[in-house]
Amino acid sequence: MAKLWGGRFQKETDRIVDDFHSSISFDCRLYRYDIIGSMAHAKMLAKVGIISRPEAEAIVSGLTGIMDDIEAGRVEFSVAAEDIHMNVEQLLIERIGEVGKKLHTARSRNDQVALDVRMYLRDELDGLGQLLAGLIGELLDIAEKHLATVMPGYTHLQRAQPITLAHHLLAYCQMFSRDIERLKDCRRRVNVLPLGAGALAGTTFPLDREFVARELDFAGVTENSLDAVSDRDFAVEFAAAGSLIMVHLSRFCEEIILWSSAEFDFIELDDAYSTGSSMMPQKKNPDVAELIRGKSGRVFGDLTALLTMLKGLPLAYNKDMQEDKEALFDAVDTVKQCLKIFRPLVATMRVKKDNMARAARGGFTNATDLADYLVQKGVPFREAHEIVGRSVAYCLEQHKSLDELSLEELHSFSSAIEADVYEAIGVAHCVAARRVTGGPAPEAVQQVIQTARQRLAKY
Ligand code: ARG
User: Fold this and answer.
1) Ligand 1 center to residue 414 CA distance, Å?
2) How far is CA 120 from CA 57, 126, 255, 300, 302, in A?
3) Residue 96 belongs to what H/E stretch?
4) Which structural domain, as residue segments, surrounds residue 86?
5) Distance (Å) from CA 86 to ligand 1 centroid
6) Overall number of domains in the chain
7) pTM of the model
8) Ligand 1 neighbours (beta carbon < 6 A)
């Protein structure tokens, strides 16, 4: 079939050029948005009198038929027709004849593709927000069961101070809540109608852009035609927000991998979410968590690809911009797939509470509490720090923990220490005493869970 833009050419494009610049293999996934956008455009053309009402109706019904056929798998797209926009237009002309040729009045593929991508991303942002909200809900449920499950908190991957599993999980809830906020914020900038910008300089036709915006549920229309066709900031913003989601998932996965090792032995992953080794019969590997960690790199790559694609482009549209799609689609697909599998991965893991508690009791995680105890008895903190440091050195020699020292032994380090010290440095007490807002004490955490649930209901 002749090209829709073939008028000024003497020759056909070389096959190799068709193959090279065609995007139909990946932008075909935009077909719904392309068709719905075209329907709104046709209705608007009729509304302002550029085409007649019967013509608009013929176009809309032709497009409906194309949508049905694509959905039923009855359409074979053409590489020579380049992209989804021209494939649909060509099909329309084949089906309804001359009237179909009027659809593209006052429109360019440049504003059309910007529209399609924005509509696509808007839907995906909503879906991803739902997935994140579901994950947060799951984590809150698990946390609620582990308000008193004591475990060591780490710095430098060295045992530091006792916390609870609930507190640890809630740290991730905070990250995922910020991720939802970022997606919502990104959506505000996605949700602006670019159609009407034409190729770059708007159009001489008296379009009713606000009507199209209402038809397609956009909050407003773009204010500069050059920007409307060359802006892909929203795709970059999503890739950045998606990268952060992946960073959060990846850090969590790293912990799941560590925790399920024999060295930590804090959790066991469900068989349904683990895999074996082809050679070593005993192995049970946390492959799912590793693969999420691994896939984070893809999304960072997509972000870099988008930034690099844009940085040298003069205004307005340049064909380089066709490269936005594979990066954006890959970022969306990867984040979606990872969020979907991560939720059941954590929901089904078995928590080994006793091992967590044992680890919390070792490693002198209560040393700060002993120092704080001394401060309460009137010892200046810096001095208390020194006293406890010497006690720890002694314990290491004696292969004991601080609470295993006798009162006489403790006395030899400071006369301020009395019998009430043992309660003060018991790990459960160390956690319970951290009642400060944002701290790990069960009541404090319970409070945060409640706030988080309220916030979740509003997403
Ligand atoms: N397939 C193109 C893209 O994805 C559509 C816009 C083409 N516009 C043009 N002037 N060649 O960017």
Assistant:
1) 77
2) 25, 10, 34, 21, 17
3) helix 84-96
4) 14-105
5) 10
6) 3
7) 0.95
8) 23, 27, 83, 109-110, 113, 317, 319, 321-322
